Structures are given as C-alpha cells and as structure tokens.
Amino acid sequence: MGAQPIADNLFTDDNMTALIGARNKQTGHIFFPLPLTENDDIEPIALATRGTVWTYTVQRFPPKTPYAGPADPMNFKPYVVAYVSLPGQTMVESRLTGVEPEDVKIGMEVELTAIPLDPDAPADEQVMIHAFQPV
Amino acid sequence: MSDVCIVGAGIHPFGRTEGRDGMDQGVFAVRQALADTGIKWEDIEFAFGGSAASGAADTMVSKLGLTGIQFINVSNGCATGGSALNAAASAIKSGEYEMGMAVGFDKHPRGAFNADPAAYGLPNWYGEAGYMLTTQFFGAKIMRYLHENGLSTEALGRVSEKAFRNGAKTDHAWRRSEVDLETIMNAPMISDPLNKYMFCSPAEGAVALILASEKKAKELGGPMIRLKTSVMRTRPPGSFEVFAASIDNERGGTATELAAKAAFEQAGMGPEDIDVAQLQDTEAGAEIMHMAENGFCAHGDQEKWLIEGRTEINGALPVNTDGGCLACGEPIGASGLRQVYENVIQLRGTAGEHQVPGDPKTAYTQVYGAPGVAAVTILQR
C-alpha cells in the first residue's frame, strides 16, 4: 500500500488529480468539501486545478489536537494556509507548498498538488493532503 | 413604548482569578450591580444571562436568592452578552416588566480555543490537516483587508499599542502595562500578519447590568443612561467567517454592517453623532475593519486615523477606551457586556484615569464573532 489520501471524497481519484467540490443543483452554488451527509440537491463536481491566491496566512506554531501532522515544537515547520480562487467556482482553503512564507503574494498563480501530512513518515504510510504550488 | 435605562452596572475584573469559577464571578458582578443601583436582589423581576463555558446562568439564583423570578439562559456564541441585553431590553419595552438584569460570565482555559470539526459540520480531515484554528482565520482575513485597502502591518501594531495604553489605566483590565510600538512590531508571529501582541486571549470575567423602565429609573434618581437601541444580526451571503473550507468568489457584506445600519436607524443617529465607541477587537485587525464596517471611517482611512490619534481617549472618536479585548481578554459570555459597562461609566463620567474628556453624551458598542453574528448598542445620557 502506498501513500493514501487523508480522506475519501476529497480527491476525484487515486492519483489525486482534482478536488471534489459540491454543487447545489437548484442554485448552482459551488462549495467545498462535499457535505458529510447525503443531500439530493447536492452533486459532486471536479474543482479546477489552477487558480490564484486570494489571501493567506502562516501557521507559525504547532496546532493542538485534532491536528495529526508533526507537532514537535522543536522542529515544527510553519506552513502557509491560503484561500485559492478557482475561476467561476469557489475559493478553496488550502496549504501552499513549494514557496516560502516570505515569498507568497496575493494574486500569484498556483496549481493543485498533493503533499504528505508528515514528510518524515515512511513512504508507504504517508497520508496525503491537498496543497497548491506556484505555477 | 418606554425608553429603557441602564440603572446599575457591575463587573468582576477580567483576566485570571485563581480559585473563583466563572459562575461566582457572575454572582460577584450581580452583587456589585445591585449595590451600584441601590437595590436588593428581591427587587429584580427577571433576568437573562449566559456563559459559553461556565454553566447555566439561571443556577446562580442559589447564590443570589430563591425569589422565584423568570431567569432565561442565553447561548448565542460571541453575541451571548449582547443577546441577553437585547432580550432584557425587549422585556421592559414590552411593558411587562419594570426592572431586570442581563448578566454574562465565563472562565476559559489558557491558550487558543480548541474546536472539533464535527461541531461545525466539517470532516475530520479538516482538523487533522491543520486548518481548525481560529487564529488562521483572523490572519487570512486581515491579510486580505490590508492588501485591498492599502494599509500597512504597522496599523495593526498601533491598535495594540493603544489597547495596552488604555488597559494600563483601567481597573477592570487584565493587561495593565504599556507596550511600545517597536516591541509590538518585533514580537513573534502567530498567524501572519498578526503577532502575539495582536491577539486577545481567552480569559475570565463577568458583567451584570440592571435595566429599568424610564419611570422606574426616574424613581431611582441616578443618572439617566438610555439604551437607545440594542440590535443583533446574523451574517449575509458572501461574508468571511471562521472555519470555512471554502468561501464564495463573489464577496458580500458582514453581520456588523447589518447590525450597525439597523442600530443607527432605530436610534435616529449617524456615526458622526457618537462620542465614544467600543468595537470588537478579538485581534488588532478586527478593530481596523470594524471602524469602517460600523461607518465611523471609510475603508482605508484607518491607518491615518490611528497615526493622527483620532481613536485615542482624547481623540475625536475614542475607541476601546478600556483596552478592549486585547487588554481585557475575552470571556465569551461577558465580552459584549463589558463594552456596555465601559460605556455606562464613560457616560456617567466615572471612568477615572481612562475617562473620555468633554462630557460624552453618546456611546456605541459592537461585538462580532462566530459563527457570523454581531450585536450593536447605542447609549445616550
């Protein structure tokens, strides 16, 4: 067994090609993620994989539970959390990867990828989360 | 309809009080409010009260006296205190009661509020992947606001500097020491652009307010502090709230804007008529956004206002004269009522070292919080 996504119903497929969003069939309103409970008015859709950073912040301290990533205060690595605007759809909250916090700019173009929640975990036990990286 | 007056106010100092639970801090505030009004518990006809983490408010009758009164518990997130006041005011306006009480209290553990994704309708991965932090929301929201409105991070530092300066002068505040701008700007970052001096902390405290009809207030003979309006509103579409895994591309208004507009309409006043304001400052950016959302200045003018000292105690529109949440901490159930308490003593002219000069006649409060609620009051003497 290789790296696994952190949850079902997060990515469209095992290759983690796109995120699954939710579309309200009556109103057309698109949001993320799929609701926990089934609803006749909601259908899953594949979200766009490219967008722009609308805003961001940096998580500078290790979060408490329910956080499941590396939280040792001695070697905690701050991570960037952004809202990525996907044109015509919604803005998705996501980590940014491949860019240092100091270099993040509002408006920068980014594309979807997947990163391990704990990069130091053995490869076959890795849990993958969504992230966007600069194009 | 009778005008509603605030005839008494009591506060348990905010901060940390070892050995006294949240409920007992509430009882302390009630007794002080009764003494301030010059009445006994037996004179109180009804009460509304609430806390987020310290139990059901109505159980305090076992400490105050089993007089059999109507005591309704209010649970409305960050608007708990504001909603209790709102309900108490309605009970008097309706003519059903002459005098009653609104009380709010809380005692939270140290550190940021811990939250469970399921309680917000979110999947577990949202918490596991490290998104379940209120501090991230505040950072991301003000990051965008500063960018859109051409404001610098130093504006955030100026808000904190003012908060600690005012807190140092306020008996009920928690943080009682001034911190200079340079120290603030060089502090460790928590969630960019907000650093450790720019966030309030969960804390402890309690406030009780005694409300009466105009007729009853005249009988009591104290200063006539009129509650001109008390409004609570929930969020409109397109607002930006905590724990949102997605937000709409199309941006909308805010609960605060709705509450402020309704409050000014009901009071027959505008922002220019207000002499002193207490605005929600969960973090320094909130005060900046709320200066504009409540209509006191244009979006983008805040930094100029701060540099010119317009929101200082001796400025044109003093804001958060007791140091706000930044200096007092945030006991959720009590926070909104603390703002009103501060305005009552400002309008009476008894605020001491942090008294606004020039005999203020009108005073404004605004709370905002999860899950997108806001409450506004306007007092007039």
Provide the spatial order of strands within the biggest beta sheet of chain A. Answer: 5-6-7-9-8
- Structural class of chain B, please? alpha/beta
Cα-atom radius of gyration of chain A: 16 Å
Q: Major β-sheet of chain A, in short?
A: 5 strands, mixed, barrel
Write down the CATH class of chain B: Alpha Beta
What is the tally of beta strands of chain A?
Answer: 9
Residue share in helix of chain A: under 10%
Number of domains of chain B: 1
Task: Provide structural commentary.
The complex is a heterodimer of chains A (135) and B (381). Chain A contains no helices and 9 strands. With 135 residues, chain A is mainly β. In chain A, a hairpin with a 5-residue loop joins strand 6 (79-85) and strand 7 (91-96). Chain A is globular and about 50 Å long. Chain B is α/β, with parallel strands linked by helices. Helices cover 35% and strands 20% of the residues of chain B. Chain B has 13 helices and 12 strands. The chains are: A mainly beta (135), B alpha/beta (381). The interface between A and B is large, with 44 and 38 residues.
